[in-house]
Structures are given as structure tokens and as C-alpha cells.
Amino acid sequence: MHDISQYQDFFINYLKSQNISKEPKNLYEPIEYILGLGGKRMRPVLTLMAAEVFDADYKIALPAAMAVEVFHNFSLVHDDIMDDAPLRRGQVTVHEKWNLNTGILSGDAMLILAYQYFEQYEPTIFRDLAKLFSKTALEVCEGQQWDVDFETRSDVTIPEYLKMIEYKTAVLVAAAMKMGAIVAKTSEKEAEFIYDFGLNLGLAFQLQDDYLDAFGDPETFGKQVGGDIIENKKTYLYLKAMEFSTPEKVSELQKLFSQQLEDNTGKIEKAKGIFNESGASEATQKAIEMYTFKAFETLEKMNIHTEKKNILRNFGENLMGRKV
């Protein structure tokens, strides 16, 4: 097996070799643009890695990895439209650089393009990949809708929030890994194990993202620290603070999360103070740890070489040790 940076290089070289630029330019240029903005390429790397975990050459997993990356970026284009976001990875978003209609249409084309990459596989592999992909894509849409619904609700529960982040984020991480297993033609049992590993890792990853949004280092986080607080998002931190706080602090937090301010410095500091005082910060860190360990427990059930288990464990540990 290879290390993460090698898998990233393999995938980026494959991405660069794809001839996406076609006519009409206003449909395909935005696709090239968003795919070229970089990012960690975590999901396609997981597809390549999973294929090699099950003794296949990573090269056969490249089209599936590409499908995962194209779909992920399709969801980002449409998310940015829904959020009216001006920037993505420090660059202008597609709908801002072109226009709203182009963002919608280019996003639609990306979803179809993602499916086309599965056509490079034999019929049974194509069927299994497409079936998993359809299920995952629908779940991502459901997760996104729940996320939108939660913005106007004051009674969101922790189980509901966990289901939302599972569908919005974790299922695609899990599917990326299972696609590598499908391409490698491993057993359904092993493919399910690696799906569960990815699902728990994806949940830990998103909870950590929630935590870093409030408490990350602005120099390394890569996004505006406190963004979720500014947007009044009811994250795991917020929900745990509501659960643990005194009635006075609950009222203060509700008031803070109903405000739209020009200067949010005070709001961010007050919210973070309540997160710390209530024990919500500690509870979030414990939840991150719990889901990471659940992922590692799944590894022990897998019928793969110890060395490969260690590689997957190291990947999980590195992910959880991130500051970005």
C-alpha cells in the first residue's frame, strides 16, 4: 500500500488527464473550475486506499474515485447556491463567478458525469457501484434538507442532529470506502465492515469540524472561526450546551442564536464561554473519540492483514489530530 500523499498524487494526475473541457464552455468550464480548486481529496483517496486494502491495484479504482469526487463537488456547488456563499476554498464560488443558472446547470451535469465514470466497469461491478451511489446521493440530499429545516426549528434533538450529519457527510465517506471494496471484488461482509468504518469516521470527522469551527486556530483552520455561531447553526456543541446549561444560560444562548449582527466578536466569545462552562466542549470531544473508537472496533472484525489495519487506524488517528 501507499501513503496518503501518494494516493493524492495518483488521483490528481488522473483528474488532470480527464478531458472535461467541451462545448458549451459555460457548462463545462465551471466543472473544471470547481474540480481544480483543490481540497484534501479525502473521499477519492479513501476509494483508492480501500481497493488496496482488499489486494487490488489502486488504478482500477480511479474511475470510481473520480465519480465520488465529482459528486462531492456537485453537492458543494449546489450547497454554495443554497447558502449564498461567496467563497469556496478561498476562491470565488461557481454561482458568483458565472451566475446562478450556470451553477445549477453545471451542478446537474456533474451528477450525470459522476454516473458515467461507473460505465468503465464490467456489468456486475457497475450495478453494485450505481446501486450504492444512488442510495448515497439520495441520503446526502435528505441530510441537506434536514440541515435547512433545522435552521428554523428550536426543538432539534441530538439524535436528529446525528442523523443529519450521518446523511449529509458520513454516508459519502462510507460509500467512498465501500466502492473501493466493490471494485476489488471483496466479499459483501468485508465491504460492509469497511462501510461501517467509514461511516463512524465520517461522523467523528463532522463532529470535529463542528468543534474546530468554534475552537480551531484561525491560522490553520482554513475557514472563519465561529462561522457556525454567526450563522446560528444548532451544532452538537450548541445542543449539548442547551442540555447541560442552567435555565439562565439556556435563555442567554437562545438569545445569542437569534441575533444577526454586524460585528460578531462578542457573540462568538459569549457562545464559546457557555460551550466551555456547560461542559458541551468536553462532551463534543468525547463524542469525537467515541465514534473514532467505534471505527477502530470495526477494523478488528475485518479479515485483512494487521499491517493494513494499522494503515487504516493511522489514517483515522491523523484525521482526528487535524487542526484544519
UniProtKB/TrEMBL annotation:
Set out the biological process GO terms recorded for this chain's protein.
isoprenoid biosynthetic process
PROSITE patterns given in the database record: POLYPRENYL_SYNTHASE_1, POLYPRENYL_SYNTHASE_2
Q: Which cofactor does it need?
A: Mg(2+)
Keyword Magnesium listed? The answer is yes
Tell me which SUPFAM superfamilies the record gives: Terpenoid synthases (SSF48576)
Keywords associated with the record: Magnesium, Metal-binding, Transferase
CDD domains per the record? Trans_IPPS_HT
Question: Which GO terms fall under molecular function for this chain's record?
Answer: metal ion binding; prenyltransferase activity
> Could you tell me which InterPro entries the record lists for this protein?
Isoprenoid_synthase_dom_sf, Polyprenyl_synt, Polyprenyl_synt_CS
Superkingdom per UniProt: Bacteria
Q: Which family does it belong to?
A: Belongs to the FPP/GGPP synthase family.
* Name used for this protein in its record: Polyprenyl synthetase
